[in-house]
Amino acid sequence: MYQINILHLVEGAKQAEGLTVIIDVFRAFSLECYLYDLGVKEIRPVGTIEEAFSLSSRIQNSILIGERQGRKCDGFDYGNSPSTISKEDVAGKTIIHTTSAGTQGVVNAVGASEIITGSLVNAKAVARYIMTKHPQTVSLVCMGKAGMEPAAEDELCAEYIKSILEGKEFSGIKQKVLNLKSNAGRHFFDQSSQDVFPEADFWMCIDYNRFPFVIKVEKDELGLTTRKEEMFQGM
């Protein structure tokens, strides 16, 4: 049996060891699952806006996606909203992605032996992947709000993954994700901010176990990159 540690925020990412799952439900790593499902070539996570522009200048036909305080970064092609991106816009493209929380966890998890990303939309696939690897240590890092403040949706995702790994029943997952509507996800229902946090994003991000794959973080000559790895159907 492996040791499972639930860590929090950017500081938690810095402390992560072993097989590390960087969790960002609203919205970074939910979005990345949808992007891979739409047929992107690869997603490259970066920490800063400046790095994103620099990398974009080196990769022909790349697309810049990212946010700060939820809003699309100036000069970027898209914000962090899965409901606003269509297949014809991104299929076959390299995505350069920077966010306030999720990608900050990836770049700061320097002590991890392996990094994958996690969200509710692929939570069971994440657990299945970990089980196939039999690591001694698992770090589940909840990135929260801007990597600085805990967020209920990431904590829920971590506890759900942990329960699967431990073979324990996690009752009421359907109701628990719906309950996010009245707390952590209430900003998606604010009519004054639909341009930044569309309601459709909420429903896309809580569609738990939609995708049977994980997103693995790797490194090459250009920096960090990711790839999709399919898990077994009917997990």
Report on the structure:
This protein is of the alpha/beta class. The chain has 9 helices and 10 strands. The protein has helices spanning about 10-15, 30-35, 50-60, 85-90, 100-110, 125-135, 150-165, 175-180, 200-205, and strands at about 5-10, 20-25, 40-45, 65-70, 70, 95-100, 110-120, 135-140, 215-220, 225-230. The strands form 2 sheets. It has a 6-stranded mixed beta sheet with strand order 1-8-2-7-9-10, sandwiched between helices. Helix 1 (about 10-15) runs parallel beside helix 5 (about 100-110) and helix 6 packs across helix 7 (about 150-165). The model has no long low-confidence stretch (mean pLDDT about 95).
Task: Offer a quick outline of the entry.
This protein is of the alpha/beta class and 235 residues long. It is built from 9 helices and 10 strands. 33% of the residues lie in helices and 25% in strands.
Order of helices and strands: EHEHEHEEHEHEHEHHHEE
Mean pLDDT: 97
Instruction: Report the sheet with the most strands, covering strand number, pairing sense and barrel closure.
Output: 6 strands, mixed
The fraction of residues in strands falls at 15-25%
Q: Note poorly predicted spans.
A: none
For the biggest β-sheet, the strand order reads 1-8-2-7-9-10
**How would you classify the quaternary structure?**
single chain
Helix content: 25-40%
Q: What overall geometry do the principal axes of the alpha carbons give?
A: globular
Tell me the distance between the termini: 20 Å
Task: Tell me how many strands there are.
Answer: 10
Note the total helix count: 9
Structural class: alpha/beta
